[in-house]
Amino acid sequence: MRHYLNCKNCFDLLMDYLEDSLDSETQKKLDQHFAECSPCLNFLESYRDCSKMAQQLRDQQVEIPQELENRLKTFLHEQM
Q: Which of 9, 38, 65, 74 could disulfide-link 5, Cβ–Cβ 3.0 to 4.6 Å?
């Protein structure tokens, strides 16, 4: 790993960073970059927030109105 990480390097490593799958040296370099680069830190925080919201939405049960369900079934049947 390079001694210095630029914003593109951080973006490329973001998923591994969030999954805690980086070696400790790279993890420290990313932590340092986020501490010094507010745009990257803002992106990281926004990404985390979006991931949390997506998880919450995935866990919710959504009721589909019966009329919409019927229309969808009719449409799909006609397309087959």
A: 9
